[in-house]
Amino acid sequence: MAGLWKEEYRVGIDKIDEQHRQLFDKIEELLEIAKSKDKNSNQQKCMEIIDFLVSYTVFHFDTEEALQREKKYVSYAQHIKIHMDFKNTVQSYKEMLGRDFSAKNLKSFIGTMLAWLVNHVCVCDRKILKNVPLQDIESFADMESFIEKVAYKLLTEMYDIPILGVKNCIYKGNVDGGIIVRTVAEGDNKHLFMYGMSEQLAGILYNKISGMALPHLDFLDEIGRSALTEIGNIITTYAMGPIEKNRTGGIQFNSDLYVHEYNDTAYNIINSVILEITTEYGKMEVLYSRLK
Question: Tens digit of pLDDT for each residue in 152-177?
Fold first, then answer.
């Protein structure tokens, strides 16, 4: 496997690029341990790496935020909020692994870190030098065009996967896909997003995040599950900005991943928008429904 760090991740600021490389290198160390058969004997080393990631993430974010203040970055406040949320995520994983050091939890941590870091480096941090706002979808004529723009941001801008076609569909009780990610976002209101990906598209996204081949979906491990689930959280984060521009508090996310079919009836989906997005790697179906 090639290293997790790729030259195309460079944002053009030497000290930021070097710090990003350090983060990818440490995650790669964890990944090698997670793939080995002696994870338990390496527990101390894993926790030392996780301690490093917690402290280095804080150091790295402080460096980025100082640079943004210097350059009077237009999305400084939003960037700080993203940093704070992720620092809390890393700290929560550290505490969880301290209580229950298991292969499942370790792989879940690695998958979440990889998906988040690739997105943050390739999309968010590249906008600092150009002083481009993080959220550039300020308004939308209708929900269909809005979802199409959000899908473009995820697939094309972030992962260089062109969209070949888009069509509106009628919701018939399910979302098609080899992988279905359901994300419920709750701010001032409650919103349901579902992302159904063909097995090939899910595999391409996973490979772009980790550099690894996605195992057969019937044997999907926690690294794949958490990485693909985090993609759902990322795209929902972009969507929620314009939907709840004037929210009074933070947004809470609750995500689940289903393989082959969505089989949960916890939410009564009545009024919904569903788009079928075609790529050269198969289709992605995106559903949005306002729950309350």
Answer: 877 887 788 999 999 988 777 778 89
Buried b (16+ CB within 10 A) or exposed e, 14-29: eebbebbbbbbebbbb
The pLDDT tens digits for 89-109 are 888 888 998 898 888 888 888
pLDDT tens, position by position, 244-258? 665 545 677 888 899
Residues 272/288, Cβ–Cβ less than 8 Å = yes
Kindly give the pairing relationship between strand 179-186 and strand 190-197.
antiparallel
Separation between Cα atoms, residue 40 and residue 82, nearest integer Å: 33
Question: Cβ(254)–Cβ(177) under 8 Å?
Answer: no
pLDDT at 111 over 80: yes
